[in-house]
Amino acid sequence: MFSPRFEQLVQALRTLPSVGPKSAQRMALHLVMKNREGAFQLAHALHEAATYIQSCHVCHSLSEDEICEICASPRRDDTVLCVVESPADVMAIEQSAGFNGKYYVLGGHLSPLDGIGPEEIGIPALIQRLKQGQVQEVILATNATIEGQATAHYILEACKTLPVSMTRIAQGVPQGGELEYVDSHTLSQALHHRMQLK
Amino acid sequence: MFSPRFEQLVQALRTLPSVGPKSAQRMALHLVMKNREGAFQLAHALHEAATYIQSCHVCHSLSEDEICEICASPRRDDTVLCVVESPADVMAIEQSAGFNGKYYVLGGHLSPLDGIGPEEIGIPALIQRLKQGQVQEVILATNATIEGQATAHYILEACKTLPVSMTRIAQGVPQGGELEYVDSHTLSQALHHRMQLK
Ligand SMILES: [Zn+2]
Ligand SMILES: [Zn+2]
């Protein structure tokens, strides 16, 4: 259609998550016909991001420097370490603005069938870090999925002998959640982990 | 979040049609974490398309050359000219594979309140082309919207004295459309324009 370069643009847009052939075509037409300046800007932003964004050497989150802003910040609490599966989780927690400690990004969860063991998600390095003694509490904030639970459980066992407090993010009914629409597994967990009020 | 370049990428992705803040963030994370090669390819494709794709000098559709493949093709019928609103319509008709004539892209429809008159959508140039005498039939394939209908009607009037057959794409019940779900305006049009079978 039209030109090889148009076709290449449609194909390249299709590699974006949840962009099908129709929306890729609509995006390409929009950029070429109505927002050519936007096309150049997006090209530049992609090139810059793909060139300069790396993994933080300390927490494995995303950063433009060897050490990310959070790890480098003297205003963040060094004694509390939140362990998450991915940089997207760091982003979500930061946007919720309820946490002032530091992070450790595993980059996935344990998945023996895919050959992803403790080594692949940086658990030995996490234990090394805990042995340095600065961290007093580890918050296990892996996903509330079967894999995330298993990964949290593995870390808990691996840190058994370390003098560090280990906690897990609360699981229960989401804010605003109406009980009749909450799935039964969540509901039974919420009952089991009920909180003492008085 | 993370880095200025990540933030710039999220902002640039948001200029794409129907991409909100959440999906822009998801796309940026996907590109940076899982498909950096794809990020470079998309950057390249955007830059190439925005640099080299232009309007065909004859039909005003999209092309990498001064004259597009369809206009330049000796195998396409020069005597039938299909008038559409946008290159997206050319694409849709070509994908339906039922047309072997040539196109004329208006680049919009008449919209007096927005200052878009006949000149702005190339109607005088269309009439000039028809006066050359090669075209025997003009198919008015503007949208079946109020504006598209008005634009088709204007062209019909403007070409009244030219020795050219003027047709309008059929309007009616879409293929597979169940009558009870078709809107009443479409249904009344479909009845009014009923076809003689026998
Ligand atoms: Zn870091
Ligand atoms: Zn052309």
UniProtKB/TrEMBL annotation, chains A, B:
In its UniProt record, which GO terms are filed under biological process?
A: DNA recombination; DNA repair
Q: SUPFAM superfamilies from the xrefs? A: Recombination protein RecR
Q: Which InterPro entries match?
A: DNA_Rcmb_RecR, Rcmb_RecR, Rcmb_RecR_Znf, TOPRIM_dom, TOPRIM_RecR
Family (UniProt): Belongs to the RecR family.
Which SMART domains does the entry mention?
TOPRIM
Record keywords, A-Z: DNA damage, DNA recombination, DNA repair, Metal-binding, Zinc, Zinc-finger
Question: Zinc finger (C4-type) locations?
Answer: 56-71
Q: Which CDD domains match?
A: TOPRIM_recR
Query: One Pfam match, by short name?
Result: RecR_C
Q: Output this protein's name.
A: Recombination protein RecR
**Where is the Toprim domain positioned along the sequence?**
79-174
Q: Does the keyword DNA-binding apply?
A: no
Q: Which PANTHER family match?
A: RECOMBINATION PROTEIN RECR
GO MF annotations, alphabetized: DNA binding; zinc ion binding
Question: Function, please?
Answer: May play a role in DNA repair. It seems to be involved in an RecBC-independent recombinational process of DNA repair. It may act with RecF and RecO.
